[in-house]
Structures are given as structure tokens and as C-alpha cells.
Design goal:
1066 residues, mainly beta, five-stranded antiparallel sheet
Length: 1066
């Protein structure tokens, strides 16, 4: 076998740890793909004896993959299950079940392979087995994770997963009193050729008391999230729970990383952190291929580690980029455990590949037609020499210390875990019974790593722990599936007992819980697999507790009594409105732009359009979709046909505002067009004024508005010149086909009759070229009695134009100098109740590959580098202390032939600095932009334009904030806020931003906000939010949510919850 005949040739082996001989010390079993497996007995003091030959546990030859230990027959002794590749080419392996026969005279455990007798002598492309009691009948069942190969015809539609494959398909086997029955077909488990299964972990994902299963699949197939239905079946619900996953999913683990009592999911991939290795390695699909896979029924996938944070009620936010654990190169085994016993679970990642088959230069070489022809037949020695072209690069494994607050730091070196290797399977185990978790990894072509953890030894009172040993009843004596719950003041520690974790490996059947400085646990709840529970109180730390299921009583309730603060309102619209974004791929026109600008609608405008005293609203349409007016009635909101909107429907509505432009006491409508598709003086780019007849019927007033052709973002009205009528600011968003060029923004003055003229240069110097504006507000920010203009935008600082007697002058407060960001929205309010106005602004957020600071900004160079009449945009960011191009070689050379000619290999390009790829003369005269701040937050006004930036809590940084809604959720006279966003139309290298479900932030005074968990707020907004607006309907405050390519959503306060909160606040 070789890498050409078996694509998983370098995947390596696993390791299992557990007490096999009853001496309370974890023993170790290693698998080897082609050599003998090894069994080591722990003799204490980190001395291990190889008893492989004595016990006959070297395995059966062939190709061996994973291993797990479990008490399969329920006799109190650990058995060993070994997974093998079977019936593939000349390999004829079978999985083995080694039943523990007890110790011999020397105290060594003896084993007998009884796989056939138990019905577990499976033949297939096996990766790893997990034993757990999925049907809660008291014995251990088995999930068999298998993997496919490309030869199985897997490159088809996702419907292939409905077709069973006898060798590649996963299997679920039910334990029927000591023999196992294949129940795959009736269980809801996929068993197809599409499954490239590499990782499996079991955990109660939805916290209903039944074990669920997470499967990591390599290549194009989705990962699987099997939710246990409690009736012996599973439902695959990954796309309902999770927005995107890793692409080349390898090992995984389930654990609670933020102590909220909800299980989170770690899944590993192969993205390098080293910038040179990154540019040398294949990663993301091209944009068209990515979308092609979506059309074929596959989910959103990105080639990086993912950390799925459980937000409750079946919703996960992927925060691998925010936590900076997303790139650890070719990663196999991921483990979630508290290694330093501080009360927060850390991450350990074993990585490395013997030969890097994703090396781009190698792929280019091997893709040559002549080479491909050479490989089609039987491989000769000359053909095999091609393998020698594969790079060999050892890399260190990675460890991330959990610092709390969703912050992790890379401690690989400081913890002594950074030895270079090709590591695969890994386990944690308390090898010396000192109360902390040691580490063991299985390596290719070098000895295994055994790391002694000294956390307990060096504790000094800051690394306290509890060790839990379980004694279950009946056929599950090790209590597999048991939960430990420790409620703390503001947190809840949760652990579940499942052995199979990481990659092809299994940990011992015991739990170690880090407690930091705590010297006592007030309450410890043990929930056994049958849902009976027991409560321990006032438990002293730093001890081993042995728990027996026979002491449990009663039934633990998994239901939540939390009442949400907000509830969804059934659609109030007649008929419904669904935004229909047209398909337009800007990357085909401008390959190097960081993201699209054509999907930034719809926006809302609220006003009483028919004079009945009730709120009505306008919702903007997409290209070739008319916007709509909805009039409030007793039964909801009813759409009123508007012929003028239909006529103008080719335009894409981006900004809108109701304003009485002609002082006739009704609400007229201003609409700004955008979409970045039209250019020049296209009719669809005109700013539009629709006059109201007083009854809610609108007519285009073309002559009242100057010919302003702009890809705009917003319109904001105010009587800035204090002459009794409403004037307008129009924000310019982008210049079509020229991202990076500054669009024109406008100040329009009203003549009192509803006719507007451009006065930008006369009355607001510098406003026309303010930047790529995204939003603006008029407010008296300097408290002088006149309305000033606050503008935010892409690559822009928070910008203020002060109103000096009708003249707008750009202010230059030092406190806002380096606030350049990718700002999306702005609101103005007195957040700290000190009598002046503060600025709230929504930004990109922190869940991104792009990291910024004052010293290390993200920058953009804009220039027609090759003088072909088309500008290029070079996105540059820091990796460590070095500036690097964000775009790949293929992306850049697709636009610049000179670079392609100078850098013929990926290695040369990867090793080159920015200045080597683009010497200073090439970028001379380029327009330069910088971004120093990507956090959303509030700028607290200290008076005299002295602002202090207070970032929102971390949960509000999960995704771009596109809308901010002001409210007082608990009626304490403090302004609380709801933020919402997400943005999908970005390059695949950056990955779509989809981690927000709406974030409720409670004002606790002095500009400080705290996050209200989504399970408490009840807010779970799916999709890309573009606007939030308040409607008063039947005396209630209704939050209207406008989403791109989706229907409107309506939320209202849960009156019973709000009443309780109000009483508490007062």
C-alpha cells in the first residue's frame, strides 16, 4: 500500500488508556497501521512494561486504525476493541474484540478475541468505535465509524448519503444481552459511500438526557450531528444546529469550554498557522466550486479548526477564529480537558503528517497530464519515486490554555508540549494518580510521547480538583454516560463520561474536574444514564470520590424553566414579504476585493403614512423586486400596492427614510439605491423621492431631486440649517467596479417646498469625499443646540461634522483619530445617563482571520498595478510581526501576469515578503487605507468631543453588527441594546460570518454592558440581519427584523418576564 493506492496511508494510529489489570493505574494500548500493536502495563512512577508478546495483543496484521477500551460484557473488566481496514485491495482485516479474561499469575491481563461471538467482527473501512448506551437500556451499544475512498464514486450529489455501502458506511449496533444487532437501517444513521469518517464523539448536545453523536467527515461530505430521539432512533440535524463546519474534518471532542452547562464541539482540520506553510498548502475551494457543492446539497465548510459554542435551544455559534485556535496545521486529535485545573477546560491538539500531500507545488507537479497517465497503471519503482517528492515537515503539537471569557492562549511551548512530530491519536489520563491529566500521543516513525502533568504537584492552592470514579449497575459498571454537574455562583461545571474522543483513541472511564482556588464544592449532582441522580453537598477538594449508582434516587429533570424575555410574533403581514436578492458575484468582476457590497439590503423605514396615528412601514426590495408599503390594520399590516415602486423595481433599495419634505403634514419617502451592479449614470442609481398624497399613495417626484447617481448606503434627514424644513444626507457606499475608490456623498438642502439642491461643497467641506459610508445619524453631539452629523463606514474612522450655524465642519478629535474600522451602523443615545450623547457603532467583530490593533492594522492598497485600466486591491494584514498578503498566489496571479512570471512556484511566493512581491515602485501612488479597530462598541462622550471607547462584550463580537436597536428591556431607565448582523458574501478564504443570532446587552451603568444569554433573552434570529426597527402595534413595542434573502421577523417582549425584571430593577 501507498498514498496513491490508499489516501489515508499517513493517517497514523490511535491510543487507548484504561485500567486493564485492576491496580488503579491506567494502562496503554497503541495501534500501528502496518506494524504490531503494543500493550503497556503501567507500573507506577511513569514506568511502563511492554506485555504485548506475553498477552498476544500484537493484533492481526493488515491495516489497523483506531482502538477503544470498554467493558463490553459488563463483567467489571475493561475490554479492547480494535478497528481495521477490511476487504480493500489485498487487505482482508476484521475488527477485533479482545475480552478481558482477568489477570495471570504475574498480574498481567489476558485477552481473547471474541468479536465473532459478540457479532462485532465487522469487515469494512473502519476508523474507530464508540461504546455507549444510546437506548438507555442499561448496556453498551456501539457506533462503528467507517470511512470511504475516492474510488467509491463519492463525487456526486448529497443524495448519495441515502444509499447504503457495505464497507464505507457507518453502522449502529444494539447490544441485545451480549450479542450485537445491526440496527443501522432503522436507526436514522447514514451508512453511505459519502462518509469519510475520521472523528466521533458522544455527548448530550441538546441536554435532554439522551446521548447524541457528532461525526467528523473528511472532504466534501457534511459532518453529521445525530440527535437522539429517545425512541431508539436518531435524526441527523447538523444544518439545523450548526451554520458551518470544518471542511477536512478530522478528530473532534465535546466539552463545555465556557462553563455555562452546555456542551460545545471542537472539530479539527488542516489549516497551517505559519504564513509560509499556509501559502504553500491547498486550502479553500474556489468560489465557484464552493457554491457548486452547495447546489449539490452539501453544507458550508471551511478548511480550518472549528469551535462550536452552544448557544442553547439547538443553536451553535462557530468561534474558532475569535478564540484563535483555528489554525494548527494537519490536526488529528483534539481534546477538551482542564489540564491546569483552574476550572476552565483547555485544548490539546495532536498534529502532523508524514508527507504533505496538500503541498501546492506537488499538486501542480502531480496534476501534469504525463504524470497522471504514468499513475494510471500498475505502479513501478519509478512511479513510487513520486512519493519522494512529497515534502516531509515535522511540526509541534498545540496546547491552548482557557483564560475564561472565551479567550485562549497558545501555551504549547511554555507547557513543554512543542516537540516536533507526526502525532495522530492522543489521550489524557491520570497516569500517576496525582489528580491531574497527563498526556499520551501516538506518533509516526518515532516513539510515543508521554507527558507528565505537574499542575497538582505545583498547585500552591490554585489548582484544586475532584476525581470521580463511577460504579454503575448491571451491564454498565463503569457508568458510561453519567453526568457530573457542579453549580457555582455564576457558572455551571459539567462533564460527561464517554471514552472515545479525539482521533482513533479513548480516554479512561474516570473524570477529573478542575476547581482552581475553590476549597469546597457546595453541591455536586450526579446524573446516571437512567436519569436517576444523587446530590452531594459540601464536598472537600483534592480527593477521589467513588460514586455508586445504587445510591441514586428520583429522576433528574432536563427541562429548562427559563422564561424568555422576548418571543416571536406570528407574521403580521398580509401578504408576507420575502427579500429576493438577485445572484451577482462581484468576485468575477473584481477578484481581489475583500467582500461583496451588493447584498446590503433590505432596510426599513417606519412612519404613519396614512395619517391614522399608527405606525406603518416601508421595506426595500432587491434588484428587480419592488419595495413595499405596509399599512397597520386591526389584524396586522396590509400591503398597499404602489405603482411607482413597481416602475422603479430594477433599482436595488438600500437606504430609506420617511420624511415630510414639503411640510404638508404627511410622510414622504426617500429611497437610496445601491447594489454595486450599476455604474455611471445608470437610471437605477438615482436617489428617489416619492411624495405622499396623505392617504399612503406614493408618486415619484423626479424633478424635486437633483440627478444624483450613487451606489449609496443611507439617507438621513434633519433640519441642519434650522430653516424649518428637512434636509438630507446621502451616504456614498462604493464606486462600481472600483472598490477602494472613494464614492461621493451628498448634502442636500430643502427649499421648503420639497425641492432639493446639492450643497455639499458649499456647506460641508470634505463631506463629499468622506469615504465608503455605511451609515450616519444627525444628533447634537456637542450640545450646542444644533444637529451635527456622525458618519461611519468602511476603512473610516468615526467621523463627526459639527454644525456651525448651518455650516458643517469636520471635527478632528484626538480620541477618534485611530478608530478606522469596517463600521456598518451607528446609533446615538445617552448611554451613561450623564446628559450628553454617546455613539454606538457596529463593526466587523473579532471572529475573523483579520486581526487589527493600533500598531498592526489591516491595510488596503488600491492601484491599477499593471496599467490595464482595472484597479487591483491588495489586502495586507499582520501575521505575528510580519506583514503578509491575504490573497493566495492563484488569486493574485489571476490578475497580475508580472507576479505570475516572477514567482513560478508556490514556495517562492510563500517565502516572499510583501515588498518582494510588490516592490515600492509598483505600489507608488497607490491609495492606502488602514483599519485599526474591528470591535463593536460604544464611544462614551466625556464632553468637548473627548470619547472613550468601550467595546461591547465578547458575545457581541461574534459577527459583523449591521443593526443596533435601543430599548429598555427591564424598565430601569437605562438604555439596553439589541445588536444583530452576520454577513455571508465574503471570500472563501475568510469564510462567511454567521455566528450571530442577535445579542441582547443589558446596560449596567457607566457605559458598561453585560450579555444576556440567548436562552434567557429568547432571541434566536437566523440569517443576515440588515436592519432593526421599532413598530408600535396595538400598544406593544414590536421589533421588526429585516433580513437579506429572507422574510421579515417580528419580536416582542414577554410581558410576564418583563414585569418580573421591572420589579427586580425597581
Amino acid at each position: 500500500m501507498n498514498i496513491f493506492s490508499y489516501l489515508y496511508f499517513y493517517n497514523g494510529g490511535g491510543v487507548a488508556a484504561g485500567d486493564l489489570n485492576g491496580d488503579d493505574l491506567p494502562d496503554l494500548y497503541f495501534t500501528s497501521n502496518l506494524e504490531e500493536n503494543k500493550l503497556y502495563i503501567n507500573q507506577g512512577g511513569f514506568v511502563f512494561q511492554d506485555i504485548t508478546e506475553t498477552t498476544g495483543m500484537e493484533g492481526k496484521g493488515g491495516w489497523t486504525a483506531g482502538v477503544t477500551m470498554a467493558d463490553v460484557n459488563g463483567d467489571g473488566k475493561l475490554d479492547i476493541y480494535v478497528s481495521q481496514l477490511g476487504d480493500y485491495q489485498n487487505i482482508r482485516g476484521k475488527n477485533q474484540l479482545y475480552i478481558n479474561q482477568g489477570n495471570d499469575e504475574q498480574g498481567n491481563p489476558m485477552f481473547e478475541n471474541q468479536a465473532e461471538a459478540y457479532g462485532l467482527d465487522l469487515v469494512g473501512f473502519s476508523t474507530q468505535a464508540a461504546f455507549f448506551d444510546y437506548d438507555l437500556d442499561g448496556d453498551l451499544d456501539m457506533y462503528m465509524l467507517n470511512h470511504s475512498t475516492h474510488a467509491n464514486g463519492t463525487f456526486g450529489r448529497a443524495t448519495l448519503r441515502q444509499e447504503n455501502h457495505p464497507l464505507a458506511g457507518d453502522k449502529l449496533l444494539r447490544n441485545d444481552g451480549g450479542t450485537f444487532t445491526d440496527v443501522t437501517d432503522s436507526s436514522g444513521i447514514y451508512s453511505s459511500t459519502l462518509g469519510y469518517g475520521l472523528g466521533i464523539t458522544v455527548g448530550d448536545i441538546n441536554w435532554d438526557g439522551y446521548p447524541d453523536v457528532y461525526i467528523g467527515n473528511d472532504f466534501h461530505e457534511n459532518d453529521y450531528l445525530y440527535i437522539n430521539q429517545g425512541d431508539g432512533t436518531f435524526t441527523e440535524q447538523l444544518q439545523e444546529y450548526i451554520r458551518h463546519t470544518s471542511r477536512f474534518s478530522m478528530g473532534n471532542d465535546i466539552g463545555d469550554i465556557n462553563n455555562d452547562g452546555l456542551p460545545d464541539i471542537l472539530s479539527l482540520d488542516m489549516l497551517p498557522s505559519d504564513p509560509v506553510m499556509l501559502k504553500m498548502s491547498a486550502g479553500e475551494d474556489a468560489y465557484d466550486v464552493y457554491n457548486y457543492k452547495l447546489k449539490y446539497g452539501y453544507n458550508h465548510q471551511f478548511a480550518r479548526n472549528t469551535l462550536q459554542l452552544n448557544m442553547g435551544n439547538g443553536h451553535f455559534s462557530e468561534i474558532g477564529l475569535l478564540t484563535d485556535i483555528y489554525a494548527t496545521d494537519w490536526s488529528w486529535s483534539g481534546l477538551i480537558a482542564d489540564f491546569n485545573l483552574d476550572g476552565y477546560k483547555d485544548l490539546y491538539i495532536a498534529n502532523g503528517i508524514k508527507r504533505r500531500s496538500n503541498d501546492l507545488d506537488y499538486i501542480k507537479y502531480i496534476s501534469n497530464d504525463a504524470v497522471q497517465y504514468q499513475l494510471e497503471g500498475d505502479l513501478t519503482e519509478e512511479d513510487m519515486a513520486l512519493i519522494e517528492q512529497l515534502p516531509i515537515v515535522k511540526i509541534p503539537n498545540a496546547a491552548f490554555m482557557n483564560q475564561g471569557g472565551l479567550q485562549f492562549s497558545n501555551v504549547s511551548q511554555s507547557w513543554g508540549l512543542n516537540q516536533e512530530s507526526f502525532s495522530n491519536g492522543a489521550v489524557y489520563a491520570d497516569l500517576d494518580n496525582d489528580g491531574d491529566l497527563d498526556l499520551v500521543t501516538n506518533n509516526i516513525d518515532q516513539p510515543a510521547f508521554v507527558y507528565r502533568n505537574r499542575a497538582a504537584e505545583n498547585s500552591q492552592g490554585e489548582s484544586n480538583y475532584l476525581k470521580i470514579k463511577l460504579s454503575g449497575k448491571g451491564a454498565n459498571p463503569l457508568g458510561i454516560g453519567t453526568k457530573i454537574i457542579i453549580p457555582l455562583d455564576t457558572q455551571t461545571l459539567v462533564q460527561e463520561m464517554y471514552s472515545t474522543r479525539g482521533y482513533q483513541s479513548a480516554v479512561p472511564a474516570e473524570l477529573i474536574i478542575g476547581l482552581g482556588k475553590r476549597t469546597q464544592v457546595d453541591s455536586l449532582i450526579v446524573v446516571w444514564p437512567d436519569h436517576r441522580f444523587q446530590l452531594l453537598q459540601n464536598v472537600t477538594v483534592n480527593q477521589t470520590i467513588e460514586l455508586e449508582q445504587t445510591n441514586a434516587a428520583g429522576k433528574y429533570s432536563f427541562s429548562s424553566a427559563v422564561q424568555p424575555m422576548f418571543i416571536e410574533v406570528d407574521s403580521l403581514l398580509k401578504p408576507d414579504f420575502i427579500h429576493e436578492e438577485n445572484r451577482f458575484i462581484e468576485f468575477n468582476r473584481e477578484a481581489l476585493i475583500p467582500h461583496m457590497s451588493s447584498t446590503e439590503g433590505p432596510k426599513l423605514a417606519v412612519g404613519d403614512v396614512n395619517g391614522d396615528g399608527n405606525d406603518d412601514f416601508f421595506i426595500g426590495g432587491a434588484k428587480r423586486q419592488a419595495g413595499a408599503i405596509y399599512i397597520q390594520t386591526d389584524g396586522g399590516f396590509e400591503q398597499v400596492a404602489q405603482e411607482a415602486f413597481r416602475i422603479d423595481s430594477v433599482a436595488e433599495d438600500i437606504g430609506a427614510e420617511f420624511v415630510d419634505v414639503d411640510n404638508d403634514q404627511d410622510q414622504d419617502l426617500i429611497v437610496v439605491s445601491g447594489g454595486n451592479e450599476f455604474q455611471g449614470e445608470a437610471e437605477a442609481l438615482l436617489v428617489r423621492l416619492y411624495k405622499n398624497d396623505g392617504q399612503g399613495n406614493f408618486t415619484r417626484a423626479r424633478q424635486a431631486m437633483p440627478d444624483i447617481f450613487v451606489n449609496g448606503s443611507c439617507v438621513r434627514s434633519a433640519d441642519f440649517d434650522n430653516d424649518g424644513d428637512q434636509d438630507l444626507f446621502i451616504g456614498g457606499r462604493v464606486v462600481a467596479r472600483n472598490y477602494g475608490k472613494v464614492p461621493t456623498s451628498y448634502l442636500l438642502q430643502n427649499d421648503g417646498q420639497g425641492n432639493f439642491s446639492i450643497k455639499t461643497d458649499e456647506l460641508a467641506t470634505g463631506l463629499s469625499s468622506v469615504g465608503m459610508a455605511k451609515d450616519a445619524q444627525w444628533a447634537d453631539i456637542d450640545a450646542n443646540g444644533t444637529l451635527d452629523l456622525i458618519i461611519v463606514g468602511e476603512w473610516m474612522p468615526i467621523t463627526i461634522f459639527l454644525n456651525q450655524n448651518g455650516q458643517l465642519q469636520r471635527a478632528a478629535p484626538s480620541s477618534l483619530e485611530a478608530t478606522n474600522g469596517w463600521w456598518n451602523t451607528v446609533e446615538v443615545a445617552d448611554i451613561d445617563s450623564d446628559g450628553d450623547l454617546d455613539i454606538l457603532a457596529g463593526n466587523l467583530g473579532l471572529n475573523s482571520k483579520l486581526k487589527v490593533s493600533q500598531e498592526k492594522p489591516v491595510s488596503l492598497a488600491v492601484k491599477d498595478i499593471d496599467d490595464n485600466g482595472t484597479i487591483e486591491q491588495l489586502l495586507i494584514h499582520y501575521v505575528g510581526d510580519e506583514k503578509r498578503l491575504f490573497a493566495t498566489k492563484d488569486e493574485i496571479t489571476s490578475q497580475l501576469v508580472d507576479v505570475k512570471n516572477r514567482f513560478t512556484s508556490y514556495t517562492d511566493f510563500a517565502q516572499a515578503s510583501v515588498s518582494e512581491v510588490f516592490p515600492s515602485d509598483m505600489l507608488a501612488g497607490a491609495e492606502q487605507y488602514n483599519a485599526y479597530e474591528f470591535r463593536s462598541g460604544v464611544f462614551i462622550n466625556g464632553g468637548e468631543l473627548n470619547f472613550r471607547f468601550q467595546p461591547f462584550p465578547t458575545q457581541a463580537q461574534f459577527a459583523p453588527v449591521n443593526a443596533i436597536y435601543l430599548t429598555d428591556v427591564n424598565e430601569d431607565n437605562k438604555i439596553d441594546i439589541l445588536t444583530a448582523g452576520n454577513f455571508y458574501e465574503v471570500t472563501i478564504e475568510r469564510g462567511r460570518y454567521d455566528a450571530s443570532y442577535g445579542t441582547l446587552l443589558k446596560n449596567v451603568g457607566e457605559g458598561q454592558f453585560i450579555w444576556v444569554p440567548n436562552m434567557r433573552s429568547g432571541i434566536y434570529i437566523d440569517g443576515q440581519v440588515r436592519d432593526l426597527a421599532e413598530l408600535e402595534y396595538n400598544g406593544q413595542e414590536i421589533i421588526t427584523v429585516a433580513r437579506n434573502k429572507q422574510s421579515l421577523l417580528f419580536l416582542k417582549k414577554n410581558e410576564s418576564t418583563v414585569s418580573a425584571l421591572s420589579s427586580a430593577a425597581n
